[in-house]
Amino acid sequence: MLREKHRQFLTFDQWDVHAADLSDLDAILGIKDVSASFHQYLQHPGNPSRNRQMLYLLGFHRVQCNSTRCGGDACICEKDDSGYPSKAYNWDRDGIALLEKAKEHLLELDAFGITDCFDESIKAIAPALGWNVGAALELAKSNHALHVWRPVMEKARQIRPRSGSSVEGHRRLSFNGPSSNFWREFLHEDVRKEILEVNRLDAELLSFARSQFKKQYGVDCKDEA
């Protein structure tokens, strides 16, 4: 999305890209070769998406607000005590300790979900928040999947993998909503492996979350990829 038509989103507050890294990451997104672009983005120290689920559970100060980062009353940037999200934690040095803390924080939540088991997650979260389960599930299905994911799916199906790519000859592209691993089919295997390696703490956290989801909610949320 950022590579194609919405490069300006890189400056929005929800992406948490520090001002010092905007020019570098913008240039990386402009690299024509997708695999090379992914590699440089993943390895850039200003990449704020590394171990992103860990980052959310551990907590961090968002980037500084300015005229381009914030729109209306829904701002999530920091007006006073701003941070540097991509450098909030040292994943390589402190990874093990940070992972244990993130697990503790996960277990302290009133409820949590896993997108691979989207419907089951809604059913688990709704009661904890006092929502009507049926209404919440219907809203999630009709609003999120219909208006967001389905157009994305149709657009993506028009993309033809280049000759010789790792996705050429794969099964017909399939998409089953928010829990789908649909986009993996567009990546070279080496890029997939690098994503998992750079975000290995997130991968371990997800594995832990799957086991706890089964323990707490009786749902075996397997990785179908």
| Share of helix, binned | 40-55%
Oligomer: single chain
Structural class, by secondary structure, is mainly alpha
**What is the number of strand segments?**
0
The count of helical stretches stands at: 8
End-to-end Cα distance, whole Å, is: 22 Å
Uncertain ranges: 160-175
Shape annotation: globular
The averaged pLDDT comes out at 84
The helix-strand sequence is HHHHHHHH
Total count of domains: 2
Report the sheet-strand fraction: under 5%
Rg, nearest Å:
19 Å
What summary fits the major beta sheet? Answer: none
Relevant terms:
225 residues, mainly alpha, 2 domains, 8 helices, globular
Give a structural overview:
By secondary structure, this protein is an all-alpha fold. It folds into two domains: 89 residues, no CATH class; 117 residues, no CATH class. The chain is 48% helix and 0% strand. The protein has eight helices and no strands. About 7% of the residues have low confidence.
